Amino acid sequence: MLPKDARREEVLERLDEAGGMRPGVAAKVHRQTGVPEADVYGVGTFYHLLSEPDAGVRVCQGLSCKLGGCDALLADLQSQGTKASYVSCLGRCDFAPASWEADNEPPPPITGLSPSDPDFAIDLRAPDATRYDALRMAVDQGPEWVCDALEMSGIQGRGGAGFPASIKWKAIRGQAETERYVVLNADEGEPGTFKDREVILRRPHLVIEGLAIAAQVLEAGDIYLYVRGEFGRVKAALMAALDEARGWGEVDDTVNWHFVDGHGAYICGEETALLEALEGKRGMPRMKPPFPVEKGFRGKPTLIQNVETIACVPAILTRGGEWFKSTGRTAPGSKLYCLSGHVQNPGVYEAPLGITLRELLELGGGVTGTLKAYSPGGASSGFLPADQIDIPMDFKSLGAAGSMLGSSGVVILNDTVDMVEAALNQAVFFEDESCGQCSPCRIGTQIVRQTLERYLESRDPETLSNLQEVAWGMGEASICGLGQAASWPLTSAMKYFPKEFGLD
Ligand SMILES: Cc1cc2nc3c(=O)[nH]c(=O)nc-3n(C[C@H](O)[C@H](O)[C@H](O)COP(=O)(O)O)c2cc1C
Ligand code: SF4
């Protein structure tokens, strides 16, 4: 039991201030916060950026960076005597192979972008000076009007799960509890995904305005902006926009805005793990129900929304729900698709929801080489073969194809790629990022990785005999989406490329 006066929520901030888990730091933070030293140690060692403070240059080993030559980059750095090691994903797949150093963050990169289109909700290249018309409309017309506009728009969450936003907003408004929170999920960590980074760098006012509207409608007193730790300049863009909006008199001080750094744990993108991190704990997902709209941050009703979802809200209000819906093709709205891997112009492309890969590749200048496979929605979505190039890339259609839109991090693989190696790359990611809380995921991700390594050594298909069973167990019995989807890269690669697994 935690002492009554312990200030647990401060633990991660204090560990960060102390420079991570160096000798004596756990004891120091215990003295500062009153949280038991062992508990502080457990928290600090959970987060990669805190547990390895002296890692030096972190080289991304996400799939796009693997295809882009991360192994050579790491070897090169090390041969020059630079301290360097691998990291799971840096959210810079458009600059593969990417690297990052804590105190030496490069300037915001300029990525390939589709032509600016004012007929889409985000319109990444438009001047970011919305002047908060939508917020004013929300105040004038009232919360019911806002929720109805969201419902009419049909917007589904853009963070991965595709849950209708209006249902969450309405559910929170229906709670008797009046202490409520709004949380921005800017932890973007799914390999292949870097759209939220671009939204914040280019249109930070859309995000600030969307959050202000949410707090207004839900009568929330506090907004938490949880930004991944490797996105220092991204956080700075958000902070500058908030200051500017305050200077314009558009955002008043009736709401408290809190900026919170992530500390390099992919799992904290999962909404309940994020809440645990906000509360100063190890980022381990909670069992659901209860859902955050009922019991979220500090056990109170909480809206957690992805950056892209929140950034769509101003346009939905100013141009109407019907308009937003009509900008999609097979599902409501436009969508930001991240394109990386073997493609001519990696970048973020805003397109009607339901665009096919064939069309997206035309926007991105085409494949480098011959298309073999693609991963439509980040590592969790597995692989689809080249002949499935015409599937509408929306939540339902990709789900029906046994994959998912997820975070729409589209990774292109040409015919030089060994699918066993590709599946192994994703297996390493999930094993490294499993929070370890439940055994199907903790042990399953390890078995998948070890088995693939053994198969690569022997090329004996017998090695793979137990894998389908292990994958089934992971899918059925894991607590959260990480473990449930962690075997998909393997099972989809085996399904569509059996020869490479010695199965045909
Ligand atoms: C393993 C895992 C990682 C996730 N990572 C992110 C993330 O980085 N950003 C995000 O917005 N949602 C992420 N999600 C989805 C969130 O749990 C949640 O559904 C989302 O933040 C809700 O916002 P939305 O409805 O606007 O999408 C992740 C889910 C899982 C299972
Ligand atoms: S599925 Fe994996 S990441 Fe999710 S709670 Fe279980 S161990 Fe943690």
Can you tell me about this structure?
- The protein is an alpha/beta fold.
- It has five domains: 38 residues; 44 residues, Glutaredoxin (3-Layer(aba) Sandwich), CATH 3.40.30; 214 residues, NADH-ubiquinone oxidoreductase 51kDa subunit (Rossmann fold); 78 residues, Ubiquitin-like (UB roll), CATH 3.10.20; 83 residues, de novo design (two linked rop proteins).
- Helix content is 42%, strand content 12%.
- The chain is built from 22 helices and 13 strands.
- It has a six-stranded mixed beta sheet with strand order 4-10-9-13-11-12, sandwiched between helices.
- Helix 7 runs parallel beside helix 11 and helix 19 runs antiparallel to helix 20.
- The N and C termini lie far apart (56 Å).
- The structure holds flavin mononucleotide and iron/sulfur cluster (SF4).
- Iron/sulfur cluster (SF4) binds next to helix 19 and helix 21.
- The site of flavin mononucleotide has 22 residues, from strand 8 and helix 21.
| Helical fraction | 40-55%
Bound molecules: flavin mononucleotide, iron/sulfur cluster
**Please, how many domains?**
5
Name the CATH class of the largest domain.
Alpha Beta
Per DSSP, the total helix count is 22
What would CATH call the architecture of the largest domain? 3-Layer(aba) Sandwich
By CATH, the topology of the largest domain is Rossmann fold
Which parts are unreliable, with pLDDT below 50 for 5 consecutive residues or more? Answer: none
What structural category arises from helix and sheet content?
A: alpha/beta
| Beta-strand share of residues | 5-15%
CATH superfamily of the largest domain: NADH-ubiquinone oxidoreductase 51kDa subunit
Mean pLDDT over the full residue set: 95
> Judging from the principal axes of the Cα atoms, what is the shape?
globular
